[in-house]
Amino acid sequence: MADDDIFSVRPEIAASAHADAARYEEMYNASVADPEAFWAEHGKRLDWIKPYTKVKNTSYDYHNVSIKWFEDGTLNVCANCVDRHLKDRAHQTAIIWESDDPGVSQHITYQELYEQVSKFGNVLHSLGVKKGDRVILYLPMIPAAAYAMLACARIGAIHSIVFAGFSPDALADRINDCGAKLVVTADEAPRGGRATPLKANVDKALARCGSDVRCLVVRRTGGAVPMTEGRDVWYHDEVERVSDHCAPVEMSAEDPLFILYTSGSTGKPKGVLHTSGGYLLYASMTHQYVFDYQEGDIYWCTADVGWVTGHSYIVYGPLANGATTLMFEGVPTYPDAGRFWEVCAKHKVNIFYTAPTAIRALMGQGEEFVAKHDLSSLRILGSVGEPINPEAWRWYHRVVGRENCPIVDTWWQTETGGILITPLPGAIALKPGSATRPFFGVQPCVLNDRGEEITETACEGVLAIKDSWPGQMRTVYGDHDRFVSTYFEMFKGYYFSGDGCRRDKDGYYWITGRVDDVINVSGHRMGTAEVESALVAHPKVSEAAVVGFPHDIKGQGIYCYVTLMSGEEPSDELRTELRNWVRKEIGPIASPDVIQWAPGLPKTRSGKIMRRILRKIAENDFGALGDTSTLADPSVVDNLIENRAVK
Ligand code: WT7
């Protein structure tokens, strides 16, 4: 039984870890017994301009949800990530940049980071960006992405990163939703040997935005891009004109740091808002303990800064800790399936953090790609983004970790700011596929359908959190009601995660996946409603229903049932056209895996689509369709089964 499949803590890891088993218990118990005292103490890991006297002021009361941490303290996030390290580690590498091209990499010291970020801050100033203004970053994984984030933090502007794989339409929606003043982009983004035309995408997006939005362009490839006079400027021109001193602005702990858009079960993506003090404290503390970061370690998180993982565990957490963080521009399979391991060997990486989808894809390529490279520097491995299946866990552990690196399976969300459930490598025995135990200050619980907390240790239900932690999101930008209704309405008094979970007899948590209409495709979160609305925007589509289905590599794939307008004929060409249409509307990550023509969709008599049935058909699980008697037209189901699209 998986619950009894245990990998005990390695003594050599425990011996030098920030927390061994006893210390974990002691700190965890203290953190929940007296959160005020615990966080008052750990808040000191940051440099404050004006120290806080208030620590926690949070309410999960449905009528009055409000989350504030360290509210009377002031600080600057950038100064905490850069300036304060100059005294002791000016010449230490802050960022190792590994380009898409395996021949090109760069080491950036804390001193250089300080100079680059200061200049970037002054360029933002010179374009009129002030404290509280929103700035969209639409960039490749290049050092300038980190400079831009930190520069915003330095001058008090709020950044919102849009993943470079999103389409011009998706970009325009985000620019408009947050009322950004400026978009920072690059000419092109090279990835896997191909270039995405970022600036051209911005041009298309800006055609849908107010005329006052400006564009700052960083040169990456040197590819020719048209510039619009009066609106667009080159970074390399502007930087010539600015000084290299830029004072960090004093910010309240509760001033916004960034907005990051993420998909929900309904409507358009929502702008998750994180603030300064609590977020940075939580990102930095989790980075230190979860990865057992030790002085001198080379740490690599393979995520993109377009996702929250890149915010908390490439930039803010590691840099707040004075760490050396590796930033990778490329993909795992270019120039070949050994790229991750080549980079680990080249830069002597000690801590490696990636996603199950990457592990599964590389597993399929064979062990030779790993064996070729010297991975003896690796000490800790991490996983994030979706449940890791035990088979992939074992491969990661045996082949990549040579059976001596603990794997930290970290469960968290864009909303949580940092890791909530995870093993600590020196403290908690591992079970393949389980995120194990809560981090300090985190009180998970399992609720039944009626919203009651299940008290038995071993149980299954939905995962909720009982009280706030400093890294929690504060609101949905511009829509606090949506924040309250999404996370606090269904289960009153709790933060509802949207995930299902099981707790085993040892109190270990096993995340079973989303319980809402959100799917997880290669670790990227997608609302089925978004894909549906993209499909029905096509002139030949009358109706669409989208569900997830199990996919060997992506975790979940996108399965679309499409009803055409009367008179339209299904064809393979139309299938391709619709697939391209969705890619254009949202971006390549939303590319449908399966499109099945559906003359009708299973609906209740009141017209509600029964997704449960569509999910079962997509999963090839016809025996368990459940009750179909409430359908307006039960024969619809037979038709869908008969014509189930072959994958
Ligand atoms: C959703 C959050 C956390 C940063 C990357 C994704 C799923 C995430 C795990 C894990 C099982 C996981 C959940 C969660 N998820 N990590 N270790 N085990 N599921 O952030 O895009 O906000 O997605 O990803 O379903 O709710 P996100």
Automatic annotation (TrEMBL):
Mg(2+) binds at residues 536, 538, 541. Pfam families: ACAS_N, AMP-binding, AMP-binding_C. Acetylated. Deacetylation by the SIR2-homolog deacetylase activates the enzyme. It comes from Thermohalobaculum xanthum. One of its GO terms (cellular component) is cytosol. It catalyses: acetate + ATP + CoA = acetyl-CoA + AMP + diphosphate. Its cofactor is Mg(2+). Residues 530-608 form the AMP-binding enzyme C-terminal domain. Residues 24-81 form the Acetyl-coenzyme A synthetase N-terminal domain. ATP binds at residues 385-387, 409-414, 499, 514, 525. This is Acetyl-coenzyme A synthetase. The keyword Ligase applies. Residues 84-468 form the AMP-dependent synthetase/ligase domain. GO terms for biological process: acetyl-CoA biosynthetic process from acetate. HAMAP family: Ac_CoA_synth. CoA binds at residues 191-194, 309, 522, 583. Belongs to the ATP-dependent AMP-binding enzyme family. Catalyzes the conversion of acetate into acetyl-CoA (AcCoA), an essential intermediate at the junction of anabolic and catabolic pathways. AcsA undergoes a two-step reaction. In the first half reaction, AcsA combines acetate with ATP to form acetyl-adenylate (AcAMP) intermediate. In the second half reaction, it can then transfer the acetyl group from AcAMP to the sulfhydryl group of CoA, forming the product AcCoA. Gene3D superfamilies: 3.30.300.30, N-terminal domain of ligase-like (3.40.50.12780). GO terms for molecular function: acetate-CoA ligase activity; AMP binding; ATP binding; metal ion binding. The modification N6-acetyllysine is found at residue 608. Its EC number is 6.2.1.1. The keyword Metal-binding applies.
